[in-house]
Amino acid sequence: MRPPPLWPLWLLLGGLGAAAPPLDSFSQLAAPQRLELHLYNDEQTLSWEPSPPSNDTRPVVYQVEYKYFDGSWNKFNRVNCTDITVTKCDFTGGSRFKGFSGLYSVLLRVRAKQGERTSDWVTLTWFQRYCNVTVGPPKNISVTPGKGSLIIHFSPPFPVTRDATFEYRVHYWEKTGTQQVRGPFKENSVVLSNLKPFSVYCLQTEAQLTVRDKNICRPGLSLSNVTCHETTGDASNRLQVILIPMGTFLLLLVLTGTCFFLFLRYQSRVKYWFQAPPNIPEQIKEYLKDPDQPILDALDKDTSPKDDAWDSVSIVSSPGKEQNVLHIL
Ligand SMILES: *[C@@H]1O[C@H](CO)[C@@H](O)[C@H](O)[C@H]1NC(C)=O
Ligand SMILES: *[C@@H]1O[C@H](CO)[C@@H](O)[C@H](O)[C@H]1NC(C)=O
Ligand SMILES: *[C@@H]1O[C@H](CO)[C@@H](O)[C@H](O)[C@H]1NC(C)=O
Ligand SMILES: *[C@@H]1O[C@H](CO)[C@@H](O)[C@H](O)[C@H]1NC(C)=O
Ligand SMILES: *[C@@H]1O[C@H](CO)[C@@H](O)[C@H](O)[C@H]1NC(C)=O
């Protein structure tokens, strides 16, 4: 069967909101509410909120029907969700009904039933599985590090018919770098080449479902979890990575050693070049060696006048020492 054209849907949608004929309020059972369709990969479920409780204590059951469009709308058919007590119908796993194929427009409806009383049918907005689905990330992702590259293998998120294909994209980045994207790829393996050797890259993959001849179809998609991997490289790359920091370290070590050796070897000359710091005047030195010797005598031995001697004392002494000296004087 060929994929149905879309245009008649708009005509149909206009008819969906038509009000149900008024019924006797006693025989009328409240209809299910808030129908929700879950389409994720090949999961297809419809859920709803139960009818509000009433005086009637008999169990409430639900009936689900579908119809699809192939040029015109077919009749409503029952699915394996007839007289169920749960508020959820799973279309994925039936043995007779194997879920909705990708491109048919489908209408689903639900009603509640209690004894002989039934509610109105509640109809969900039409959908096309391949257009309304949210596509998960590729499955079984494995990453093999290569020389300055990463090789990624994966499986499609779910099997699709020939009406649709997957395109894959890889988002990747270095620990501190900006994110880049490669793709789209049609194959189930991708080689990220031209990466730096011995560097850690993190990546996420995504699968996009593209439906043939349908530009208006925009299925949702989600990214895989982030994983990080280190690339490998040639032995020479490895040497570079190891040798550059090691070489720098060794060079510094040799330089330091040489300086130290030269210093020891030419210590005296170095001392000569860097003049010794100013010494304490001889007289004071002697006084400090032998405090019994009167300093004035020592000073008088030299020809320097008293006032000058005072000056010379105050220049070389710290305030504390100066006091000492003055005290002794
Ligand atoms: C429930 O039963 C009470 C008394 O039996 C009655 O007054 C009320 O109208 C009933 N409610 C409904 C929704 O039938
Ligand atoms: C219908 O669903 C029930 C359980 O939900 C399962 O046991 C049964 O095999 C299904 N029948 C068909 C015809 O799919
Ligand atoms: C499916 O997608 C179409 C187009 O985006 C939208 O109008 C429609 O409401 C969706 N159907 C459901 C059941 O969400
Ligand atoms: C993923 O791998 C597991 C085992 O490793 C395998 O059983 C499964 O079929 C694979 N899935 C796909 C979609 O290839
Ligand atoms: C991603 O990670 C979360 C939590 O770490 C985990 O629950 C989930 O299954 C992972 N998804 C995939 C696709 O591996």
What does this structure look like?
With 329 residues, the protein is an alpha+beta fold. Among the domains are: 33-131, Immunoglobulins (Immunoglobulin-like, Sandwich), CATH 2.60.40; 135-233, Immunoglobulin-like (Sandwich); 236-265. Helix content is 26%, strand content 33%. The chain has eight helices and 18 strands. The strands form five sheets. Strands 3, 4, 6, 7, 8 and 9 form a six-stranded antiparallel sheet that branches. Strands 14-13-16-18 form a four-stranded antiparallel sheet, with no helix packed on it. The protein has a three-stranded antiparallel sheet with strand order 1-2-5, with no helix packed on it. Strand 3 and strand 4 form a beta hairpin. The longest helix has 31 residues, at 235-265. The termini are far apart. The relative contact order is 0.10. The model is unreliable at 1-25 and 311-317 (pLDDT under 50). Bound molecules: 2-acetamido-2-deoxy-beta-D-glucopyranose (NAG) (5 copies). One 2-acetamido-2-deoxy-beta-D-glucopyranose binds next to strand 11. The chain crosses the membrane at residues 242-264. GO terms for molecular function: cytokine receptor activity. Residues 137-231 form the Fibronectin type-III domain. Keywords: Membrane, Signal, Transmembrane, Transmembrane helix. Pfam families: Interfer-bind (PF09294), Tissue_fac (PF01108).
Shape annotation: elongated
Name the hetero compounds present. 2-acetamido-2-deoxy-beta-D-glucopyranose
What's the CATH topology label of the domain at 33-131?
Immunoglobulin-like
- SSE pattern, N- to C-terminal: HEEEEEEEEEHEEEEEEEEEHHHHHH
Task: Give a short account of the largest sheet.
Answer: 6 strands, antiparallel
CATH architecture of the domain at 33-131: Sandwich
Q: What is the number of E strands? A: 18
Query: Segments where pLDDT lies below 50 for 5+ residues?
Result: 1-25, 311-317
CATH class descriptor of the domain at 33-131: Mainly Beta
CATH-assigned homologous superfamily of the domain at 33-131: Immunoglobulins
Amount of beta strand: 25-35%
Compute the gyration radius: what is it?
A: 46 Å
Arithmetic mean of pLDDT: 79
Share of helix among residues?
25-40%
C-alpha end-to-end distance: 125 Å
> Count of helical segments?
8
GO molecular function, one term: cytokine receptor activity
InterPro entries: FN3_dom, FN3_sf, Ig-like_fold, Interferon/interleukin_rcp_dom, Type-II_Cytokine-TF_Rcpt
Domain Fibronectin type-III: 137-231
Protein name: Ifngr2 protein
